[in-house]
Write a structure and sequence with these properties.
- This protein is α/β, with parallel strands linked by helices.
- It has two domains: 180 residues, 3-Layer(aba) Sandwich (D-Maltodextrin-Binding Protein, domain 2), CATH 3.40.190; 97 residues, D-Maltodextrin-Binding Protein, domain 2.
- It is built from 13 helices and ten strands.
- A five-stranded mixed β-sheet has the order 2-1-3-10-4, with helices on both faces. A five-stranded mixed β-sheet has the order 7-6-8-5-9, sandwiched between helices.
- Strand 6, helix 6 and strand 7 form a beta-alpha-beta unit.
- The longest helix is centred in the C-terminal third of the chain and has 27 residues.
- 42% of the residues are buried.
- The model has no long low-confidence stretch (mean pLDDT 96).
């Protein structure tokens, strides 16, 4: 058996279902792969684990490939992409348009995420014919319970939202909002999950990683064709409580999985330029080109 340790970006959730299915069904083991999923304490822990050689694969959003670039980091492909952005409650849209102070709940408030969140709103405002002042948009770090925070608190919006979670929950709870994503604001979408490894791991486990990708593709296809079984697999592995809302989240998530995972030199090029323009990353063209695995 070849051990493959995978550090997730956050807590286990339906976005990871192809990986979960590969483990729960025994498909990885049948191919001689002992796959382990690790939930990190912090969002960026996986990059340190990759550098130190403690894991084989890290799952995270593609923007972090550039933000946390190091010599030898490699992408082996994107396996999931959704709509992502800032959700503004409907009754706060006039405040936004009038450039009044608004409060945004977010699970991570820092210079990078806040800069991107404001840029999304600023570009939306320009497109719609109004202006925003940075000092009037306050990002407040709370947790992942965006809808609950907006319903129970005095927040005007939420940032770092995935449509297959917050969008679906808002629909389910009839929470009226405007979801400002790349369809409404002119910026490159990055609400996706990339499989990242290192050159050192590729040198040792290239064949095993190719098998892993092939099986993960098969699992994604199986999930798309078998919704009931997909739900059963998630609940069995995660031990999560079965709810109607979670069923709906799973149903919306499954069509968003990739069934032909592969590294792409062009898929996130516009995103890298976007982050460079915001002075959030600084990598050369050669460094950018070096990220994409050719195995």
């Amino acid at each position: 058996m070849t051990k493959i340790k995978i550090a997730l970006e956050w807590f286990l959730n339906p976005d990871h279902l192809p990986l979960i299915a590969g483990i729960e069904s025994g498909a990885y083991k049948k191919a001689g792969l002992d796959v382990e999923l690790i939930e990190p304490k912090e969002h960026y822990d996986g990059f340190e684990y990759l550098k130190s050689g403690d894991i084989d694969i890290h799952v995270n959003e593609p923007l972090h490939l550039f933000e946390h670039y190091f010599d030898g980091i490699k992408s082996i492909g994107c396996f999931f992409e959704t709509r992502g952005g800032v959700m503004i409650r409907s009754e706060s849209m006039n405040k936004l348009r009038e450039n009044k102070h608004i409060k945004i709940t977010t699970p991570a408030s820092n210079d990078v995420t806040n800069t991107i969140g404001f840029e999304i709103l600023k570009r939306y405002a320009k497109k719609e014919g109004f202006e925003l002042s940075r000092q009037n948009v306050e990002f407040i770090q709370t947790d992942f319970y965006h809808i609950k925070n907006m319903q129970e608190g005095d927040y005007d919006g939420a940032w770092l939202c995935f449509y297959n979670f917050e969008g679906i929950e808002a629909e389910y709870k009839s929470f009226s909002n405007t979801f400002i994503d790349a369809m409404k604001s002119p910026y490159p979408n990055f609400s996706a999950l990339e499989l990242m490894t290192s050159q050192a791991v590729l040198d040792k486990k290239a064949e095993a990683l190719c098998q892993f990708i092939g099986i993960t593709n098969q699992m994604a296809q199986y999930l798309k064709e078998n919704l009931t079984q997909a739900r059963d697999i998630f609940y069995a592995y995660s031990k999560a409580e079965k709810t109607e809302l979670l069923d709906k989240i799973i149903a919306d998530t499954i069509p968003r999985f990739e069934t032909d995972i592969k590294a792409s030199t062009t898929r996130w090029y516009e995103l890298c330029n976007f982050l460079t323009e915001l002075k959030l990353v600084d990598i050369t063209d050669d460094q950018y080109k070096s990220i994409w695995a050719t195995h």
